[in-house]
Structures are given as structure tokens and as C-alpha cells.
Amino acid sequence: MFAATGGNGTERRHRRTGGMMCFRQQGSPAWLFCLLLALCPGRYRGLSVRFPSEEPVYVIPGESLVLEARLEQGGGEQVATVTWEREAEGRSPGKVKVAELPGVAPDPRVSTEQQGATLRLSGFRPEDRGVYTLTVTSRAGAKSSAARTVREYEAIHHVSVGINVSHAVLQCGEAWGSEPRFSWLHEAGAVPPETGRVSPDGTRLHLAAPPCGHYTCIVSNKLGRSSATYSAEPCGRKGSGTAVGVAFLVILLICGGFLGFLLWRRHRKLGNRAERLQEPYEP
To answer: What pLDDT score does 258 carry?
Structure first.
């Protein structure tokens, strides 16, 4: 009885163990691959390239353009070719090859660094503007691309200041300058807290009191600065008018009092004279 029970138990354990062994033999490669992929995603992600920012790059004519990308190689991928191309922004007349690695750049102003992930172009010209695309191809044929827009650095133009009366806000704007920075002045000095508060981007001045005097918005960048001024009623006009009115009233009261005093004195003299004339004559 005991032996039979032990045999059945041994058989059940053998079946369970055999089942687990069968599962391990059949499912372990996929399970292990998924586990390693979860623990080390970068290793099996393959070849990829990207720029650290998607914001446009502004370049002053005559200076150097530098585009830096980040190249990531996973799963043992090896880079075969690196290609840089330029395309006019907003139009698609076709892409122009700027550089290729291995190979020689068609423009002597162009050079590459960091295994082709960095492009350097000296003596930037207006025709160098456009969308630059970096394409990396692995030996296995896999491709990864990233693009960055390059624009010419423009000076500040046509600064203007307007007022939103209902919200007591002064709004500053400019036409098309690159990377504009805004600042405000009130009566040729910094704006104090009791006068107003400048918005985080600098384009608006939220007034804390009724506008008075001159409000100047200054917009600047690497190529210079320009400004515009909004003029309101001069500060202190109401206060000075009140002071003048009070002073005039005081002077008027003084003059009226002095004139009344003169009239009273004259009336008293005339009264005394009349009394002397009415006195009886005594021989």
C-alpha cells in the first residue's frame, strides 16, 4: 500500500517535472530573449540616430554651422555609410548631398566629425539654409534618419507696442527677427513692481496701475536691438493739478480775508467819525 502510494507520488512528480522540463526546452529561448530585451533595451534596439533638439538652428552669415547628432548602435550593428543632405525649407525641388562618409564632401567648406555624426560648414551663406537630413545605414542594410532645420539669423525689425485697455496689458511684438529677447523700461528706468509685472517671455507688461508716462519695449538679439514706446498721460498731472487748485483756493481765501479786513477797518473809521460829529457842542 505504501509502495503503491509512493509509486503514484513519484509518477506524479515525474510527470510534473517532465512537463516543466518540456516547457523549458520549448519555451526558454523566446522567454530568455524577451527578458534580455526588457533588461537591456539599448543592446537590441538596433541602429538609431537623432538630434538633441528639434528647434531650428539660426546661423549668422559668415559664421560656421555645426550640426551634432547622436548615433546609437545596438545589437552589434556596424555603420556602413553616413550621408548628409540638404533640402529647401517648404519646397521639395530635391535633396542636395552635402557630405558622405566614406567619401569626400563636394563642398570644401564642409567637414564631418564623430564618425560622421557631426557636420561642420564654414562661411555660412543664405543658400545654405534648409532642412538637413542625416541618414545612417548599417552593414545589414538597416537605415535611420533624423532632420534639423537651419535658417539664416535675422536682425530685429519693426518693433511695436499696443495696449489692451480692458485687461490693462501692454503687448510688444516684432516682425521676423531671430531669437528675440524682450525687456521693458518705464520713464527710462526699470519697471518697478508697483507699476507692472513683465510676463515670463517678456512680450507683455501687466499694469498694476493706470498707465502714465512712457513705456518702452526693447527687443534685441545677436545682431542688434530696436525699440518702440507707448506714451500715456504724464505721471503726476492729476496730483499737480490738485495741488495748484488747493494753492489757488488758499490764496483766494487769504485775499478775501485781507479785503474783508480792509472793508471792516474802513467801516469802523467811518463809524467813529460819525459819532464825533453827532456829539453836542459845549462852549
So the answer is: 73
